[in-house]
Amino acid sequence: DIQMTQSPSSVSASVGDRVTITCRASQGISRWLAWYQQKPGKAPKLLIYDAFSLQSGVPSRFSGSGSGTDFTLTISSLQPEDCAVYYCQHYASFPITFGGGTKVEIK
Amino acid sequence: EVQLLESGGGLVQPGGSLRLSCAASGFIFSNYAMTWVRQAPGKGLEWVSVISDSGGNTYYADSVKGRFTISRDNSKNTLYLQMNSLRAEDTAVYYCAEDGRSKVVGSGNYGWFEPWGQGTLVTVSS
């Protein structure tokens, strides 16, 4: 199975700051990676697919990059509504697995 | 508007069974793969199972293989998850979701999930 490791597990930043979350796959997954945002009590919401494709309706301050084993999700200018837990997910093969999550808070 | 509505969750004893349903509307259900993802209380997301658009292909996480069965009724626009031999560690909110990659790339492709239902809570406890 492919293991997905996210870092950091939590980050606290100020409004307007640039925030970067990293996701590392235990083996190469090409660009078969998605990012999700989950707010408390809500279902996850897709942000990015195929490593860097922005889902329709998602603000452009969110961006994804990477290929192979190392990926990043960047929030270019953190907004209060971005407080949430972020998950990466690979779909290179079965079983599909998620990263452990990164909690983003406002300082 | 695409809507996914899960039902069937509840309290069940260890070793018991439960069947979850996910009613879909707002899209051509039979055209896309569908998936179940769960989230234990206070924990992260865990993929459970996926089924192809026709229902002919299914895949499972090792943690549920042999105990859970995913199925669909395209005439009723409904996805199911039959859960048998339930364990305490199966306690979670169960979400159904549309497989976005099957929508973009076509049948036989599996990938990201969007949209998701609101989830249904399954509690396995004596």
Descriptive report:
The complex is a heterodimer of chains A (107) and B (126). In chain A, 0% of the residues lie in helices and 50% in strands. Chain A contains no helices and eleven strands. Chain A is an all-beta fold. In chain A, strand 4 (33-38) and strand 5 form a beta hairpin. In chain A, the strands form two sheets. In chain A, strands 2, 4, 5, 6, 9, 10 and 11 form a seven-stranded mixed sheet that branches. A four-stranded antiparallel sheet of chain A has the order 1-3-8-7, with no helix packed on it. Chain A is globular, with a radius of gyration of 13 Å. Chain A has strands at residues 4-7, 10-13, 19-25, 33-38, 45-49, 53-54, 62-67, 70-75, 84-90, 97-98, 102-106. The model of chain B has no long low-confidence stretch (mean pLDDT 96). Chain B is mainly beta. In chain B, the strands form two sheets. In chain B, strands 2, 4, 5, 6, 9, 10 and 11 form a seven-stranded mixed sheet that branches. In chain B, strands 1-3-8-7 form a four-stranded antiparallel sheet, with no helix packed on it. Chain B contains one helix and eleven strands, in the order βββββββββαββ. Chain B has one helix at 100-104, and strands at residues 3-7, 10-12, 18-25, 34-39, 45-51, 58-60, 68-73, 78-83, 92-99, 113-116, 120-124. Classes of the chains: A mainly beta (107), B mainly beta (126).
